[in-house]
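Following up on my earlier thread - several people asked me to post the actual chain instead of describing it. Fair enough. Here it is, all 284 residues.
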Amino acid sequence: MVNLAVKSGYRPQASDMSVEIDAYQFFLLRQRTEGERLAMAAKLTKGAKSLSLLGIKHAKREHSFDWVKMTFARAVLAEKWQPNLTPIGEDETLWIQDSIELARQLHALLESWEIPYYVTDGVASIALGEPRTTRDLDLVAEIAPKDITRLSNALEREGFYCPLGAIEEIQSGRGNVLSVTHIETILNADIIINSNTPFNQSKMARRRLIAVDPNFSFWVASPEDVILAKLLWSRLSQSENQWRDVLGVLKVQAENLDYGYLAEWADCLSIVDALSQAMTEAGI
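Reply from S.P.:
Thanks for posting it. Predicted structure:
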């Protein structure tokens, strides 16, 4: 019999889920590897895109495109899939590819150019915590702004579109994000230039290599750094999704976390109360 006793204050991931069911689901997720949790998320993402595409096709048979755009797409796809709703040619399987495949491509390219990087935000939260759908890929790269043209040229040779304006902003110091799109699969990645702050340098130093399958690994931020970064973003944006990701990583990684590191940086980043609340709601 599995002991699923949880502490007072434990918060399920969804308001309509019981504490017992939530605790049992995370018990099962802790038995899975990072690669298995990523595979679960990939199926969710592909399923959501396939269902969206089916709905669009059905609606377009009966209504004008303007009507579809104002009702179905706005209500269902606006935040997640509408940015990707461009002509996809004959091969619809390309459109339902997921961000993990994009990580596979970028890992090979960045490793070949010896550019240190790590995946963060949604995909990192999935690997380390709760599987969910994700629209794009966010990664942090250790590259000087003056070298961004070299990177963009390499990306374009691999089939990516790199906006010239973003490249110029990075080179001039006005920006730090290169948002690229893989032309064939229409997948998007935000490549964030790592900044020289103590916390950002610590995150890069503590990145870890995780295995998706026997032939593919990529670098992700440590679970502690994902938690801290998302607590910061949650404070700034008041995002319920960021908070849910924090709880997911805490619930899965509870027995493996460096709590001394969490406490030290939570104090430095002025998020001690937020970390304490998240730990309580995660049953720690």
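The beta strands are 117-120, 137-141, 160-161, 177-182, 187-193, 208-213, 216-220. That should answer part of your original question.
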